[in-house]
């Protein structure tokens, strides 16, 4: 772990616990690491001496003067809970729209690839029936459709993934908030 | 060492270290470490506590192209040391009593 990684880890944890003066802690530990390294410690040794970000966070949390905005987030979750009848249907509707969009893209992907394949097969018939020029034209069209099919298919996978992770983030933030309360 | 006792001693140790000259976080720990257990994470609340009661002041200064915070003792801080030393005379009597020595009653 480098000094930067250590400080980023620390900052993430400070933010997670809602510690207001996180910048002061960051500059304090940054100064310390610099001083240790100036005194002949390697970057790794300096970080080992201070301990893991987890250990540092625990000692910061055990410091009585740290203000944890617990009451505020409690009010926030209570408001969120009370508001379910209002924002619940909106979120569900939004989610259904997103799913419908992903579904439409998927249908487009399937239709375009199928017509691409059909045109490709048809071009062989054209080659024997009408000649090379028409065959080339149809072959080109087949490739265009096939390519569009692939593009739409990728678009579908991407949008589906995004919709899925959006839901995951939503649930995750709920459960995480719960855990924080129990921990503190 | 008993954590309660150590907590009281650490504050005065930091003040005593600053009595001679101003200093910065790492130097404070380096000097006190051989004598009493102190770490980076324990020093921070001590400095914050001392700053809150104006026993020390802090100034930012550039050192090797970075900012370093220097701490300086104030008159209030020096009073704290004197108060501690006065208190300690009473503590010595108590320590004698705990050891089983005689007390004049």
From TrEMBL, chain A:
Q: Which parts of the chain span the membrane according to its record?
A: 78-97, 103-128, 135-156
Q: What's this protein's name?
A: DUF1700 domain-containing protein
Arranged from A to Z, the UniProt key words for this protein are: Membrane, Transmembrane, Transmembrane helix
Q: Which domain of life is it from?
A: Bacteria
Instruction: Tell me which species this is from.
Output: Companilactobacillus bobalius DSM 19674
Automatic annotation (TrEMBL), chain B:
* Pfam families listed in its UniProt record: PadR
Gene3D superfamilies in the cross-refs:
Winged helix-like DNA-binding domain superfamily/Winged helix DNA-binding domain
Question: Which residue intervals define the domain Transcription regulator PadR N-terminal in the entry?
Answer: 14-82
Q: Which residues cross the membrane?
A: none
Name used for this protein in its record: Transcription regulator PadR N-terminal domain-containing protein
């Amino acid at each position: 772990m480098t000094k930067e990684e250590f400080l980023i880890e620390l900052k993430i944890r400070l933010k997670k616990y809602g510690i207001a003066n996180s910048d002061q802690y960051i500059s304090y530990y940054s100064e310390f690491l610099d001083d240790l390294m100036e005194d002949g410690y390697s970057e790794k040794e300096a970080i080992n001496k201070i301990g893991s970000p987890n250990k540092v966070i625990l000692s910061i949390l055990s410091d009585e003067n740290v203000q944890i905005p617990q009451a505020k987030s409690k009010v926030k979750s209570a408001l969120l809970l009370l508001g379910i009848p209002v924002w619940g249907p909106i979120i569900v509707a939004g989610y259904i729209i997103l799913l419908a969009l992903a579904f439409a893209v998927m249908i487009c992907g399937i239709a375009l690839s199928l017509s691409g394949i059909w045109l490709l097969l048809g071009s062989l018939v054209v080659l024997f029936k009408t000649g090379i020029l028409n065959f080339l034209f149809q072959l080109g069209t087949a490739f265009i459709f096939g390519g569009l099919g692939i593009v739409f298919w990728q678009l579908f996978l991407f949008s589906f993934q995004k919709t899925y992770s959006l839901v995951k983030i939503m649930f995750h933030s709920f459960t995480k908030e719960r855990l924080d309360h129990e921990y503190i | 060492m008993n954590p309660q006792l150590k907590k009281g001693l650490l504050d005065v140790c930091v003040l005593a270290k600053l009595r001679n000259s101003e200093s910065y976080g790492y130097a404070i720990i380096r000097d006190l470490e051989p004598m009493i257990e102190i770490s980076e994470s324990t020093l921070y609340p001590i400095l914050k506590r001392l700053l809150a009661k104006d026993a020390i002041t802090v100034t930012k200064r550039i050192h090797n192209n970075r900012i370093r915070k220097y701490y300086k003792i104030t008159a209030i801080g020096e009073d704290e040391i004197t108060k501690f030393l006065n208190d300690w005379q009473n503590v010595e009597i108590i320590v004698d009593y705990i050891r089983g020595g005689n007390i004049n009653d």
